[in-house]
Each structure stands twice: as structure tokens, then as C-alpha cells.
Amino acid sequence: MEVAEELAKKQRAISVTEFFEKNRHLLGFDNKQKALLTCVKEAVDNSLDACEELGYMQEKHKQQVSLPEITIEVKPMSDNYQILDEKTSIAQLFVQKNQYSILYKGKSETKQIRGGRVSFKMGDSEILISEEKDRLSASLNGTSLRIKKTAPTFKIMIRDNGPGILASKIPDIFGRMLYGSKFQSMKQNRGQQGIGIHSAVLYAQLTTGKPATVISKISSQSKAMMMKVQINISKNEPEVLEKGEADFQYDHGTQIEIEVEGLYVSGNKGIDEYIRRTSLVNPAANIYYTNPNNEKFVYKRVTDHLPKESVAIKPHPQGLELGIFMRILKNSTERTVVSVLENELSRVSRAVAESTVKSVGLDTKTKPDEISREQAHSILKALQSMDLMRPQTDCLSPIGVEELEKRLKLEFKSEYVKAISRKPEVYRGMPFQIEAAVAYGGNISGEKASLLRYANKIPLLFDSASCAITQSFLGVDYSRYGIKTDNRVPVGPFVFIVHIASVWVPYTNEGKTAVASYPVITKEIKLALQELVRNISQFLNKKHRSSLFQERINLFDKYGVELAFSLSKLTGIDEKNIKARIENMLEKKKGEVEAHVKETLSTNDVVSKRIAADSAVSEDDGSGEE
Amino acid sequence: MMAAEKNEDMADNTKGSKKKNTEILDKLGQKIYDQISKGENPYFDLPTRGLSNVTYSEEKRILMMGSGLSRRYFLNVGHVRKFVQTVAMAALSKELIQSDKHTSLRSAFYQVRRTIPGTKIDIVDDQTETNKAIEDLELITDLTREQLHINANKAGAVAGEVVVEDRGDVIDWSKMGSGGWAIPSNVEDLIFKKIDAKFVIYMEKQTIWDRLNEDKAWKKLNCIIIASQGQATRGIRRLLQRLNKEHNLPVYILTDGDIWGVYIYSTIKFGSITLASASDKLALPEAKFMGLTMDDIERYGLKRHLIKFKDVDISRLNQIKNYEWFKKSKQWMEELSKMEKLGAKVELDAFTAKGLSFMTEHYLPEKLKEKNFLD
Hints:
The complex is a heterodimer. Chain A is an alpha+beta fold. Chain A is 37% helix and 26% strand.
């Protein structure tokens, strides 16, 4: 028996709650701030994947493609308190305006507060809450208790116009905790990132005791189904608390609503920014978002075409790990090792398969289940030393250069936008592709460039320093392109975007927040950035030149005013007379002057620097006499 | 070239020359005006400044400005600012001459400093710009800045048995106390009433002058002592020249034993590279170098006061070694190679280690007696 399987058995023995608690950090629930973000993220990722999948199906069936429409709402619900006896929490209190709810020994009750007091009779206990000058106090059967403010509650709602979910599948999808079950899927999708929507449902249940409300509709002919789902914690099984019909605004799609405890923050690590960044790399989606402050954001699609569909590929021998190879051998229905190699791996021909098997001293007729671990190891090594074709790259689904540029232009109203896409490359047998973009000016604020990192279209907000993208970004020599830096970061209104698409993004950590630094990946990112920087630097030079050109042309008008003044003093001739003659002369010499100024701009930097110093407002000319 | 005829007599500051100088400035203005009127790109020519346009005249033993000319255009991105500054300076100078007032280099800067209306451009940003504009104007008009009514600051000090008259005031150089008489920028109008001295010692350092003055060295040695602070000003150089040419007094130069001292000597004797045009009025080919020489270091046991050369010292030494006027002198080439070998310098002040009055009592008398000078 495989070790993993043994472990899996043990894992099943512990409760899902325990599992959740122990793996909070892996699941993205380390703290209340991140937890709120993770809940939104899981639901949004699911929705986008589902919408795209529907679109691809529609394309295949030559139906009209429905493009993604995603609505996200995060609403503050209540202020929350813990009621403690000494140091033990005995109850939870939720306050929403005048509405007071209490959760005590697994039971909850809701009441209005009147005259600053509200009393809850829970079995034979009475909990009394009183409010005085915005301060709450609590007592249990007359004994006063401590009361402590905790994270507030938010209601999260995500709705999409995806394919919808069959009613029979809803409980399993939302109400069963699946853990550690991920088989290596050789296809690029967002779902690889998080642990799944069910963890958000569990988190909601653990923090507020409320089930998830799911509404789903699968076609215009069918009615929308509503279900309240929660997880039976001891059995790890879904429980449907309520079921019925509901209204739904699209012909098909899914809506999920959960209530969770969390902390809402604005800024670079908050939900607002996460959604904005998500919208940048999903140019075919309309995204509507309402944040807890009731601010509404609409991110409009800029293209009517979904990104290229990614297809699943078979593992390529390069980078294939022994464990996975063993599993392939074990699970295969092929009759010989040779056919396993040929049919279950990519880029292995019959001839290569045969010569590989022979080269390790095995008969070509050997059955896959006769292969020992050592033999498998030799086969894999032999295979990896072969000169195989690179893995095919249609498993990748890039954002698209044109779409990215359009989206950035719309978002930043920038003066300049450039996106590029590198050719797919391979690290350890895994195809990957780098896309990068830069936007300059417009409403981009900030003195320094910002870097937006993405992996498989998911924005990466955390652990920037340890990420290969950040490291490559800081490794570019911007000064070579005439761009000033501060602490290796370009100075100016720049936004850089780097996206790595791969069937298997290598992360530095299990939280999947940063990309690992494989040399070939870092190299590709750097090359992409260098190309962008070359482009932006050309643009900036041109811009600089044209403003310099105008500045220098104007120089003569400006100094002409002074010349008229001094010359009038020197000669006693009327200043206006001289001024008019200077203007005539300038008009007559216009062409010559323009040609001359153009020439000064084409000479090298040293000259233009000197001239700039000559003409500048306040630069002093340090040259002393000998 | 815009320059007027040579103005022979610098001391002549009569109404006639005033008129003549005004005319030169007028002509400059008129020429620019005419160019503009014809729709031409206005320009003026001036001798190129710098080593490339300086030649050494073996006959006169002075540096001469070459015939290289630079043409400065108004319609040129690199020239326009300097062009306008020069015209502004010409206008200021004409105003000064007409109102018979003089200004200082510093004040001249403030007098032309203004912002062009409707722009953020100041026509001058610092005094180096006006100083250059004045030098350019001197070259264009072939007038000295004193003739343009712009004076440098008083500088340096002089003492000796000499009586002069300066604008009606009679000054006795032997009765000027510990500070001495400060030498004005313009010494053309000085009238020498009485001179009781056999030679002049010029020194680059005020501290050494103070030392010699306290010793009354000028009385003991029957000479005039003159100091600047660093490079000799034009006023001092002109004064040295007048004492030499008009009163036949030999001039001896006393500097630190380093390459910068050598260049101070070179400037006084041959003229300066930037002011090569004025060598006739300022250079003093008769001047001799008294010390501090490399041999003095040996002879007077100053080795323990050596200060190691820095990179700038070495690179300056290499430049000076290649100046034509030094290359012509075997004696100097030897001196410079000794200096290079030593790779260090000695300051005059080191003599005080041997006794405060060592210079007055031993060093100077011995030098004079042995006529131990570099030429």
C-alpha cells in the first residue's frame, strides 16, 4: 500500500473541523483578513472557470456563446462579540442595528433590543445583554460576564451565468470537504490554486453557524433551484437544510451566498484590488462588484472572444516524477509497458518506447504490473535521456496580447500600453508560457512602478519578495534603457504585469502565493520584461524628444524678448522696433531653426545634456576655468 | 571680426578713450541690429579660448592668442543663452561708461540678472555665467574689463619704501601696518611718487607675506613684497609689470614647492591661457622663480615636511610638463622631472620650523646673493 493511501485513511479518521483547523494556512484562512479574501476568491475562480467551460461547449456545439457575467457583493452584516466566563467563551453575540442574535450551546436566537436591554432564555439559562453609551455588558443568570469584540460578519454573494449545477450535484459540490485528493491534472485551470469552495462553506459554518445558500439554474426551460447546504462535520457529508424554487436573473448560472467572519481591508492585499486585478486578465468577462462600503465597481469586457481553450495533455517524460510514473503504470489498461509509454505519455513514439524498454534489458512484451520500482526508475531515466520533442503547448490558455492591451488601456487610460507573449517553454517537462505587459501614464498614480503578478490568471497578492516574478523584475537593468530606478524599481507611473500560464505552476509554498525560481522561468520573465522595457523606453524617448524639440524651438522666442531688451539698451533703438524685426527674422528662419533643433536632438546624449544645461532654468554649468 | 582697433594706452582713461570705447560697444550693437534687420541669423566672432588657440612666442617670450575664431550665433541651441548674456553685458557696460560709474564682478551679476518676462528663464543663474560673458566681451571688443568699467575685487597686499598717488590720495606703502595696502583691480591710474627698492618679491601666500612683513623684510632687503592669495589677479600682475617695465625692478616669484606654484609663476611670466589676448598688458617675461625649488628641499633639510602628491597633482604636473614654454627650458624640464620623482610637495610655511625669521635671515639673503633663480 502506498504511504499516501495509508495517510489518507488516518486523515479520514479525524474530523473535518480538525483537518481544517490544522491546515488553515494551506487553505488560505490564516487570518480573518485573508479568510474573507479566500472565500471571495474561491467562488470567483469557480465562476470564471465554469463560465469559460460553458462557452467552450457552446462553441463546440456551434451555439451562441454566452460570455462571463460575474456579480460579487460583500456586505457587512453584524458586529460580533464573544461572551466569556473567565477565559472560556460560552456564547457568541451578533449585533446588526437593533437586532441581537445569540449563539449559545449550538442554538441561536434573535431579538430586538428595547430600552437598552435584551434577554435570551436558552433552556434554563438566561443571558441578559444591556447597552449603555455604546458599551455592551452581559450576564448569565445574574452573574456578570466578560464581553469581547471579535471580527465582524460579512455576507458574500457571487453570481455567474455559467452552466449551472444539477440539483443532485449541489450538495456534494458545496457540502463535502474533499482533501488532499488532487491528482496531477495536465491542464491549465484556475481551480488548481485554492482548495475549493467547500472550504469556504465550512469556514462560514465554523464562524457564523450559517449554511451556504445556493441557487442554480441549468437552462431557460428549467426552474432555478435553491438549496441551503451545510457540512455534517462528524460525517463529512453534505446536509441540505432547505430546498425550493427560486428566481434567477439568467437563463443559466449559479449563485452562492455565505456568511463569514472576516476583516475587510482596502489596499493592495484586499478584495477590491483582487477583483480589479482579476478583471485585468479576464478581458472577456463583465464583472460587477459591490464592496462593504457599498461602492460599486463595474469592469467591462473588451472582447467578445473567450481566451483559447486549454486542453488536457498527457505527462511528458521530462520532469515526470517516479511516484506518478508508478501510478500511471499501475492504473493503466494497456497490455505492455511499451504501449503504456506510447499511449499514456506525451511525445513518446512506438519506436522510442521500444528502444527504451530494450535499453534497460526488458522484453518489449513485459506487462506494466510486472515492473518493479527499480525497473520503473531505469525506464524513466532512459526515457528522460532521449531526445524527445517538447511537450505540446495547446494545454496553455494565455490571456492574449491584444486583449490585455485593450483591457489595460481601458483601466488606466494610459498613454502607452504594450503587451507581449513569449513562446511556450518547458521546465521539468511542464509547459509554461510567460505573458507580460506594461502600462504608462494615464491615471496610474504613484512614484514607482507597480508589479502585478499572476499565475494561471489568478492575481498573486502575497509573499511578493520570494516570488520568481518579483525577483526577475528587480533583476532587470532599467538604467540601460534610460529609466531611473529607486531600489531597483523603475521610477514613474508604470504598471507591469507578468503572467505565468502552466499546466503546473511551481509555487514556493503550499499556500500558492509565489512562483518558484526555476532558472528557465526566471529567464523567460526577464526576457519578457526586457522586451517591454525596450519598447517603453523607445516610447519615452520619443515623447521626451518631442517635448524637448518644442522646448528648444521656443527657446528662441523667449530669448528673443531678452535680446530686444538688451539690444535696445545698447543701441538706443526702440525696443518694439527691434522686437518686430526679431520676430520677422525668426519667421524667415523657421525652417532652418527647426532643422537645426532636430539635429541637436539626434546627436548623442552628452551634447543634448550640455545644451539642456545651457538652456535649462536652473542647472548650473560646473565647468570652471583652467 | 567685431573687434575695434587696438587700444594702445591702457592708462589713458580720458574722455576721448571713453568715447572711443562707447563707440566700440555701439558698433557691436548696430551690427547685430543690422543682421536682424536683414533677416539673418545674428552672430559675432571671438577668439577661441583654450590651449588649442594659444601659441608661445619665442621672440616675446609670452603666450599669444592664436587666430582661431569662434562664431557665436543667436539661432543656435547651444549658443543662444551666451549670445544674449554677452549682449546684456555690453548694454550694462555702455551704461556704466556713460554714467562714469564702475561696478564689481559680483554686482555686474546682479545688474544683469533678470527673468525673461512670461518665462521661468533667468538670463543668468550664477556669477560664473556673467564672469564668462565679461571675458567674452573683452575678447570681442578688445577692451579690458576695467575699460568696460567692471572691476575685480581688491586683492593681496603690498609693502615697501614706495609712495604712490591713487585718485588723488597719497599712500606710503611703508606705513600700512600689519595688513599692507590692498591692490585695486585697476592700477592704471597709480602714479609712483617715490620708489626706494631694488627688486620685488611676489609670493602666492598671504601667510608668508605676513611673516616677512612682521620681520620688516622689505626694509632689511630693500625691496617691495607683494602677495596674492592663490593665482595672482590681473591688478597684481599689471602692478608687477609696471614696476618692472617702468622702474626696472627685477621681479622674483616665491611659491610653495609644488606644481600649482609653478603655474602661478608661469601665468605671471608668460601670461595665462584664458587671457592670452592680454599677455601684452600682463605678462612679465623678466620674472624669475626664486623658490621653493626641489634643490631647496635638499639644501634646507625640508624632507621631513614632504606632503605626498595626490592624483590631481600628478595629472596637473603632466599637463604642465607638456606646455611648449616649459619644454623650451632645460632648467625647468629638470626641475619638473625632479618634482615628479619626488612625488611630493613642500610648503613655504615649512621654513618656520627652522625659526620664525629663517626666511628673512637666511633663505632670501642666500638666494639673492647667489642669484639662485630658475628662469
